[in-house]
Amino acid sequence: MAPIRLLLLAFAVYRLLVIVGLTVDPAGLLRLGLDGQLTVDPSDVETASNDFGLLTRAEPMAVLHPASAEDVARLVRAAYRSTRHGFTVSARGHGHSINGQAQTSDGVVIEMSGASREDGHHHHRRKKAARPRVSVEEMHVDVWGGELWIDVLRSTLEHGLAPKSWTDYLYLSVGGTLSNGGISGQAFNHGPQISNVHELDVVTGKGELLTCSEEQNSELFHAVLGGLGQFGIITRARIALEPAPKRVRWIRVLYSNFSSFTSDQEYLISLHGNPASQKFDYVEGFVIVDEGLINNWRSSFFSPRNPVKISSIGANGGVLYCLEITKNYDESNADNIDQEVESLMKKLNFIPSTVFTTDLPYVDFLDRVHKAELKLRAKGLWEVPHPWLNLFVPKSKIAAFDEGVFKGILGTNKTSGPILIYPMNKNK
């Protein structure tokens, strides 16, 4: 009789697993009634198995191209109810993470950025894809969490508006950067991107679709912004806007003295409360430990007919520091731009012979890194491993960091990668 009893028990357990949804396979997920496309297509699975870093790989069971926030919620609810023997879910925007944060093994990757792209990836479109909705009166835009910032910019510029705070690279998803912080040279003035959000729609870990803001579900709002995707999936964000300038005066100056470089950065970001005419709109910088970097990194800013030579400047320990600053303007204040820039630069202590200036449209400045990407793609240098590290270093430790890392490790071990320095006001 024992074998029969065991067989009956096994049958009962199998029925239980099916009833409560603990067995998971792509065919079972199709019964969730999703409006979007759930696929096991090898090309989709391959794309979702990797990210920009190309340092880790995790192959999902399936990939979901959601048609709506409710699709995301249905899938997460299924995963939540299948906790004991179920599956994991990971949201993927542009897949620009570097250590597998957007990957999951034997689970489901939600491809949030469903629109077609210039790079040819992610050719599926959301069935109910909605364009960003701009409110000119209230100066905000509502966008899908998987929307790319470049598309947000294009939509808002149709109304003469633009988001206040950016990342250096615009081919990233809104939900992706808001889950991390969203830092660029404007952050000293407006704070990072997460400081410029009015409202979110979020799918929680239980599969609930909730709206949150400072006033509504505020704990969730602050957990999700900068929460590294651990508190929910952003399906909609309401982003603050401002009038978009037409053009940018883009200036680079060089330093051989690190103390002068950081002092000038700190001075410039201390002006964030001043009127627009009395401060720069963007303050950033980078470290130069290789002659090629200054002429090639991220743009063709310096003229190829007149390349800058580190050896001709007398770099301290073979290291130079470049301060990048910009001033926005349009027709109404174009006549004053030279005077405003000159007044601000009088108080800086850069090497006098190293002022390099260019003027360009606002859009071209914001999208400058993409142009470098296209060049690297053409040379086969984009789809390569990208080890990357971001650190917040306090003012009290930055001089020691320069000695130990910039002049020490990097000064003797040349790198072709970028070393960026963003000065930040802590209260932002």
TrEMBL record:
It comes from Turnera subulata. SUPFAM superfamilies: FAD-binding/transporter-associated domain-like (SSF56176), FAD-linked oxidases, C-terminal domain (SSF55103). The gene is CKX5. Transmembrane segments: none annotated. Its EC number is 1.5.99.12. Residues 56-244 form the FAD-binding PCMH-type domain. The keyword Oxidoreductase applies. Gene3D superfamilies: 3.30.465.10, FAD-linked oxidases, C-terminal domain, Uridine Diphospho-n-acetylenolpyruvylglucosamine Reductase, domain 2. This is cytokinin dehydrogenase. Its cofactor is FAD. Keywords: FAD, Flavoprotein, Glycoprotein, Oxidoreductase, Signal. It catalyses: N(6)-dimethylallyladenine + A + H2O = 3-methyl-2-butenal + adenine + AH2. InterPro entries: Cytok_DH_C_sf, Cytokinin_DH_FAD/cytokin-bd, FAD-bd_PCMH, FAD-bd_PCMH-like_sf, FAD-bd_PCMH_sub1, FAD-bd_PCMH_sub2, FAD-linked_Oxase-like_C, FAD-linked_Oxidoreductases_BP. GO terms for biological process: cytokinin metabolic process. PROSITE patterns: FAD_PCMH (PS51387), OX2_COVAL_FAD (PS00862). Belongs to the oxygen-dependent FAD-linked oxidoreductase family. One of its GO terms (molecular function) is FAD binding. It comes from the Eukaryota.
